[in-house]
Every structure is written in structure tokens, then in C-alpha cells.
Protein: histidine kinase
Organism: Pedobacter hartonius
Amino acid sequence: MLGITALLIIESIIELSAIASADTGIRKLSLYKDLSFLVVAAMIIYFSVGFYKKIHLTNELNYQQLFNGSPLPMYVMTKGTLKFLAVNEAMVKLYGFTESEFLRMNAFDIRPREERNRIKVFLDEFGELTNESGRWLHQKKNGDCFYVQITFHYVPLIGEGAYLVMITDIDKSINDEKRINDLLNLYETVNKATNDVIWDYNILTDELTWMPGYFEIFGYSGESTQNSFWAMQKIHPDDRKYVQEAFKSLLADKRKEWSAEYRYICADGSVKYIRDRGYVIFNVAGEPARMIGAMQDIDKQKRFEQQLLSQNEQLKEIAWINSHQVRRPLSNILGLINLIRDSSVQEDDVRQLIALLAVSSKELDDAVILINRQTMEGEG
């Protein structure tokens, strides 16, 4: 816009000069006009090219900073040979190779041998059609293999073409899934010999799935179990709030293991004591996403414990009776026997002592009968 304005001003000055001049100077003025136009046009082109270079250099520096500073491992490789053209610091840190080592390598060198043909086939077929390539097995400098998720973009402006590749380390998530699947298979096997009930809870969608055994142990049909996990409607009302708060704390603190004991209401209205244990699975972002657990029916064990506690109280009461009601008449009897044995005691006194001995013996017998009765009630 500035250049066009300058040209118009020059043209106006020349035209005014032409009016004031003789006809013989028209050719010189026309030549002067053409030269001025070329000079201004050259200046416009010069400054435009400089401005474009400055913008291009700024954008290039910005992209370079984004590439090097990205927390995700990134690299650029050629389309044909898959040779590394550039790697960022996160790539060096994850794989263990130096930048100079990477620049002498290609994409095959960070994959175990059995995976190398797969990447070539994939790029030949889908390289310019998709940006997602799914899960891959990669290999570090020390030989350790791990799973990654790859996102890549085709860059046609570099030589024969290149790919900008971004890496997400998903090895922990994959191993967690494998471990959980192994545990589920193990739990299903164990479930056939125990009263454990396996459950699978999707924290993100609030979906709870029961494994075989739940309906047989607690008597519910599939239709009657559809409710929010957080409602915990089948947990005894006196235990429900405690379990809800404990579960919220588990997720808030991002702990891995869960354990609780509570009473569970069966379909027929009866109540069973449950020991509930679980393991939390976290997603790539480090947030709780899934939980696998096992409910164990400990009702018989719990009621047996309560029975033992009750019997213990009865034993304490029996011990008290033994220490007071038994020992008192027994002490009397022992004392009376010693008196009777005394040779200086008169016959009338002996008769009186025998009468007292009979009374103490009756008290002892009553105490023994009471102990037997309480013992029988405790066993019942």
C-alpha cells in the first residue's frame, strides 16, 4: 500500500512538471517516470522479501522451540529410508541414545527385529492417509522393550518427503491391562473354589460389571442390579456412608489398593458380612480410570467371631462366679475341716461344725450347678 501511494505521488509530480515543460522534454520526462517506477518497485520488492524472510525465520524458530521443548518424545525421519533427521531432548531421555547417535540411525533401529517389517508395510499402505498408527513395540539403547502410541504427520516439503513423529509411552498402561486380565482369569478360576465375587468398575462411565458368582451368592437377577455404583444401595445403611467416604478418599488420594468390611443386603432381605478388596488402574494422564475388586463372603466367619466374643463374656462371668461364689464356700469348708481335726474340740462343737460344713457344701453345690447351667447356655 505504501509503495502504490509513493508511485501515485511521483506520477502526479511528473505530470505537473510535464505541463510546465515544452513538448521537446516529453521524452525525457517519460523516461524519468519509467525509471522512478522501476526504482520504487525494486524497493517494494526488496522490503517485501526481507519482511517475508523475517516472518519465516521467526516461525522457524518458534517451531524449533516447540520441537525441542516438547515433553513428548518427537523426531523427524525421511519417507524413503526412515533415517532420523532430527530428535528432541525428550526422545534422547526416553531411549538412551545421544542426538549424534540418533542422526546415524533410522526408525528400524529403535524397534525389535520382529517389528521392523511391520512399520515399513504400514507406512507404504497408510503413510499419507492417517495420522494414527496404534500401538508399537519399541526398544531402548539398553535393550529394554516397551509399548508406545504413535502420532505422525507427513511433511512433503523436506526433500523426498518426511514424517514428524510424536511418541507416547504407554508401557505401564499396557502392562497394567495385561496384569489385570491375568488376575481376572486367575480370579475366575479361584472363584470356582471359593465364595469370592469379582467385579469390574469403570470409574469414568460409572459402569459396574459383576463376574460369575454374584447372583448365586446374593440372589439378585441381572436386571435388579442396575444402579449407580456411588449410590451403594445394597450396602447396609449403617455402613453405607463409611464405605462411600472411604472410596472417595481412595480416588482423591490416588491410592492403588482398596479394602473395606461392611454388611451387604441380599435379595431376600438378609444381611451378609463382606470383605471387599480392589486394585485401581490409572490412565496415561495418571487419573483413576478403572478398578478391579473381589467381594468375599465372610458372614460365617464374622458371626463365629461374634459368637466367640459372646462366649468370652460368659467365660468372664463364670470366672467371676468361680472366684467369688465358689471360693467362699470352699474356703469355709476347708476351715471347718481343720477345726474338726483339732482334738481339743468338744463333741457338741463338732456337731455344730458339721452342720456348718453341710451349709457350706450346699452353697458350693449351688455355685457348681450355676456354672454348669451358664456353660450349657453359652454352648447353645
User: Anything to note?
Assistant: The chain has four domains: 2-67, 73-169, 174-297, 306-379.
